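[step 3/7] inverse_fold.run input=structure_tokens len=328
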């Protein structure tokens, strides 16, 4: 393990100094891009407005609420798939407008409990089902069902609503991701070699304090996935796809497709071997900036997966847009 530290032996303590009645509104910008070398094409853009309120403040922590206020979808390219995904994302997101998540933190601001989680799960399931029903009833969806057998309602019924709830909670958790922790000021680097359970990775942590007392904590984890592993995964996916497509079907002379599957599998493996000539790299980045009193000012989360210069970039940017005066 390597650790690089910089300069002063000072620290950043991420602690909440909130008051009952504090209110802060944020815009959450969620975007996705396809990456091809230096070119990027935006495939998804959704903006969500939320409000955080401190309902009670005690020596043991805070009782707070997190409410969804508004949702807007950005225009994307002319690609039909991307437009459909943007429309579905917006419709699904709009279904949660007005939903309030109640939660508690300890005295440092670290989230300890979602107090109405069971209610949120029930509500999410009902809202998601209603949203999927509306989307499935759209003329374009009905036409696709008739043309290619795409039953959107059936797909929606197979969705895991617990994962949907986790999506609701993700941005809330990001806002308080570093609360209750202490970081040495400066840049720090740690390296971990690959093990049987994890890939080789490098972690970069940076903590800084501005003159006005605001501070930023950022962490990036870069992992390298060996090309042999990438080939195995891609080969397995292609094999499963072929098996599914030919399952239960016979050749013209009534025989199984075993030979065809083997020949196709061999061909795919050759093509994959040619195409995958580099290790893949994933990057997970999270940066949180807080005001001096511990209120989150902005959050940036990025996930990037790239292989041979091509891949996908997902980003969430959260920015404070309005802060209401606390009680005196």
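[step 3/7] decode complete -> sequence:
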């Amino acid at each position: 393990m390597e650790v690089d530290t910089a300069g002063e032996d000072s620290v950043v303590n991420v602690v909440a100094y909130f008051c009952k009645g504090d209110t802060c509104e944020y815009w959450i910008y969620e975007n996705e891009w396809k990456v091809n070398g230096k070119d990027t094409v935006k495939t998804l853009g959704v903006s969500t407005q939320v409000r955080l309120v401190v309902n009670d403040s005690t020596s043991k922590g805070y009782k707070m609420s997190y409410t969804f206020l508004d949702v807007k979808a950005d225009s994307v390219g002319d690609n039909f798939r991307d437009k459909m995904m943007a429309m579905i994302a917006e419709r699904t997101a709009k279904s949660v407008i007005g939903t309030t998540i109640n939660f508690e933190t300890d005295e440092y601001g670290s989230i300890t409990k979602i107090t109405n989680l069971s209610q949120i799960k029930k509500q999410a399931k009902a809202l998601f089902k209603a949203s999927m029903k509306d989307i499935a009833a759209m003329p374009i969806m009905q036409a696709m069902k008739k043309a290619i057998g795409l039953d959107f309602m059936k797909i929606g019924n197979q969705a895991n609503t617990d994962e949907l709830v986790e999506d609701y909670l993700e941005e809330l958790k990001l806002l308080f991701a570093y609360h209750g922790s202490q970081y040495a000021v400066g840049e720090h680097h740690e390296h971990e070699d690959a093990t049987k359970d994890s890939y080789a990775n490098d972690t970069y942590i940076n903590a800084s304090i501005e003159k006005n007392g605001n501070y930023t904590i950022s962490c990036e984890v870069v992992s390298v996935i060996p090309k042999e592993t990438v080939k195995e995964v891609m080969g397995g996916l292609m094999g499963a796809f072929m098996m599914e497509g030919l399952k239960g079907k016979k050749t013209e002379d009534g025989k199984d497709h075993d030979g065809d599957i083997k020949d196709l599998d061999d061909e795919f493996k050759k093509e994959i071997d040619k195409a995958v000539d580099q290790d893949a790299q994933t990057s997970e980045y999270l940066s949180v900036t807080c005001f001096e009193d511990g209120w989150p000012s902005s959050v940036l989360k990025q996930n990037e997966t790239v292989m041979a210069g091509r891949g996908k970039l997902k980003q969430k940017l959260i920015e404070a847009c309005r802060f209401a005066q606390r009680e005196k």
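[step 4/7] annotate
Residues 229-277 form one domain.
The chain has a mean pLDDT of 81.
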